[in-house]
Design a protein that fits this description.
Elements (H helix, E strand, L loop, with lengths): L10 H12 L4 H10 L5 E2 H8 L3 H13 L3 E6 L8 E6 L3 H35 L1
Antiparallel strand pairs: 1-3, 2-3
Helix pairs in contact: 1-2
Length: 129
């Protein structure tokens, strides 16, 4: 039997996941980003084992990362017979991904401030009538 080494989440990784989730990043994507940020590349099975996600959740998270063009995949042929495996890695640096979420939060804050300002104008107009 072949020995395999799979990275597993530690307390620091769990903090990363929790902070990403607090920013509105879905749990599946948070776990996936936290895992892939710490490895060079991984199979979906490695991701499953290391990120505490089930196979369908890995697929959903991969779909979301593909949509943002943050993931790269390649096919790796097995030594033995069977289906070739896909190996995944972050194509976009984690700093750039964090910048994406930062910009998203800035846009949300600006929209909220615009609404507050509009309320202020509407309510001060109502007082002057």
């Amino acid at each position: 039997m072949k020995e395999s080494f799979v990275m597993k989440f530690d307390s620091r990784d769990m903090q990363v996941v929790e902070i990403l989730r607090s920013l509105g990043v879905p749990r599946k994507v948070s776990n996936m980003l936290a895992y892939l940020a710490n490895v060079e590349e991984a199979t979906s099975r490695d991701i499953e084992r290391g990120s505490e996600l089930r196979q369908p959740e890995v697929s959903i998270a991969l779909r979301m990362l593909r949509k943002n063009n943050w993931i790269e995949e390649r096919i790796c042929k097995n030594d033995c017979t069977g289906r070739p495996m896909k190996v995944y890695r972050l194509k976009t640096p984690i700093e750039q991904i964090l910048h994406h979420y930062e910009q998203e939060k800035i846009r949300e804050a600006n929209m909220a401030m615009e609404k507050i300002e509009k309320l202020r104008v509407l309510l001060t107009q109502a007082e002057s009538i």
